[in-house]
Amino acid sequence: MKNYLSEQEARRAILDVGKRIYDRGYVAANDGNISCKISDTTILVTPTGVSKGFMTPDFICKVDAQGNVIQANKGFRPSSEIKMHMRVYKE
Questions:
Q1: CA 25 from chain center: how many Å?
Q2: Which of 7, 9, 81, 91 is catalytic?
Q3: How many CA atoms lie within 13 A of 49 on its CB side?
Q4: Cβ atoms 65, 40 nearer than 8 A
Q5: Burial annotation 8-46 (CB, 10 A radius, 16+ → b, else e)
Q6: N or C, which terminus of the chain has less Cβ within 10 Å?
Q7: What is the pTM of this model?
Q8: Rounded CA gap, 54 and 59, in Å?
Q9: What pLDDT, on the 0 to 100 scale, is given for residue 10?
């Protein structure tokens, strides 16, 4: 059985990584994408067009194993690179 982070833990981890990469200058403006698989069928992913250094938990989008949006707050869409992230998880 795989051991996944809870959704709340994963959201916090994504925000932490986003802040760290932004603060260290690894990403500029709205660059970079972060995701976290929280179950065999669910992935949390950063939204497109948002600075990773200034996100809050409600920015994070939830998609299924095919990349279909399960939950995204108004004005937010999953990263356009979600299919690449899904392929990495598959491999």
A1: 19
A2: 81
A3: 4
A4: yes
A5: eebbeebbeebeebbeeeebeeeebbbbbbbeeebbbbb
A6: N
A7: 0.92
A8: 10
A9: 98
> What pLDDT is attached to residue 6?
96
pLDDT of residue 1: 60
Q: Are 50 and 30 in contact (CB under 8 A)?
A: yes
51 near 30, Cβ under 8 Å?
Answer: yes
Alpha-carbon distance values, 52 to 41, 57, 79 (Å): 24, 11, 12
Residues 55, 79: contact at Cβ < 8 Å?
A: no
What does the pLDDT profile of the chain (91 residues) look like in tens digits?
A: 689 999 999 999 999 999 999 999 999 889 989 999 999 999 999 999 999 999 999 999 999 999 999 999 999 999 889 999 999 988 8
Is 7 designated active site?
Answer: no
Q: How far apart are CA 18 and CA 22, in angstroms?
A: 6
